[in-house]
Amino acid sequence: MTSSRLSALIAGLAVAATLGACAGMTPREHSTAVGAGIGAAAGAVLTGSPEGAVAGAAVGGVVGNQVKR
């Protein structure tokens, strides 16, 4: 595993770990956070770079925000 893939994986795991703090969120906030986490993981896997993880988190957060609309 290359160091950039490892960094992206660690970033994705960090986002996933923070989702445990979603207990006090509204359903829309929760969907936004989950979308960002899934997007970050997908972006990291697809591109193998931290930039891809950030872009995936941004897109996933927007999509997650619109789901509970």
Describe this structure in words.
The protein is built from three helices and no strands. It is mainly α and 69 residues long. The model has no long low-confidence stretch (mean pLDDT 82). 80% of the residues lie in helices and 0% in strands. The protein is flat, with a radius of gyration of 12 Å. The protein has one domain.
Would you summarize the structure shown here?
The protein is an all-alpha fold and 69 residues long. It is 80% helix and 0% strand. The radius of gyration is 12 Å and the shape is flat.
Summarize the topology.
Blueprint lengths: L2 H16 L8 H21 L2 H18 L2
Indicate the radius of gyration in whole angstroms: 12 Å
Number of separate helices:
3
Count all strands and give the number. Answer: 0
Could you spell the SSE succession in H and E letters?
HHH
Task: Work out the helicity level.
Answer: over 70%
Give the tags.
single chain; mainly alpha; 69 residues; flat; 3 helices
